[in-house]
Write a structure and sequence with these properties.
Blueprint (H helix, E strand, L loop, with lengths): L5 H6 L5 H7 L7 E2 L2 H4 L27 E2 L1 H23 L8 E2 L12 H4 L8 E2 L5 H10 L1
The chain binds iron/sulfur cluster (SF4).
Iron/sulfur cluster binds next to helix 5.
Length: about 140
C-alpha cells in the first residue's frame, strides 16, 4: 500500500506531494523483494521511505532490507513457534523476566513495568546473540 501520513500531510499542506514524501518518516524493518509491489510504496525505489533501494542495474543495493516470500514464511513460522513455546512456559507457571543485555545499556532502566515485573538488579540477563546470516536461515529451515 502507498505510504501516507495524514498528520504530516496536514502539517506540510503547502508543500508539493514530492516534498511531502521526502519529509515522511522512513520505514524500518524488512520489505518483500518484489519491486513491482514496492513501487506502489515508493515509486523510484530510492530508499528514502522504504528500507530498500535499487542501483542503476535495477538490482537491490546491499544496504536493502529485503526478504523473499520463502524467507518471510520461515520467519513467521519461527515466530509462531516461539509464541506457542512461551504460552507453554506461562501455562507451566514459568514467566520469569530475563531481559536482554545490550553491552552497557540497561533496558530495564526506562521500562514502564519495572515496578511490577519482579526483576532484581542482580538477576540473570540474556546476552544478545549475533548469528551469521547464512547460519540464521539454515537454522530456520530446520526449525
Ligand atoms: S524492567 Fe522487567 S519487564 Fe522491564 S525490561 Fe526489565 S525485566 Fe523486562
Amino acid at each position: 500500500m502507498p505510504i501516507k501520513n495524514e498528520l504530516l500531510a496536514q502539517e506540510v499542506g503547502e508543500f508539493t506531494e514530492a516534498e511531502q514524501i521526502f519529509k515522511a518518516p522512513k520505514m524500518y524493518g524488512v520489505v518483500i523483494d518484489n519491486q513491482e509491489v514496492l513501487k506502489h510504496m515508493e515509486e523510484n525505489l530510492s530508499g528514502k521511505i522504504i528500507p530498500a533501494a535499487i542501483n542503476k542495474s535495477g538490482e537491490f543495493k546491499g544496504s536493502s532490507s529485503v526478504f523473499t516470500i520463502k524467507q518471510f514464511n520461515l520467519v513467521f513460522n519461527y515466530i509462531e513457534k516461539l509464541i506457542k513455546k512461551h504460552f507453554d512456559f506461562i501455562e507451566d507457571g514459568d514467566f520469569r523476566p530475563i531481559p536482554l543485555k545490550f553491552n552497557d545499556y540497561d533496558v530495564c532502566k526506562t521500562c514502564e513495568y519495572r515496578s511490577i515485573c519482579g526483576f532484581e538488579e542482580d538477576d540473570e540477563k540474556r546476552a544478545k546473540e549475533y548469528i551469521p546470516e547464512e547460519e540464521f536461515w539454515n537454522a530456520l529451515m530446520v526449525e
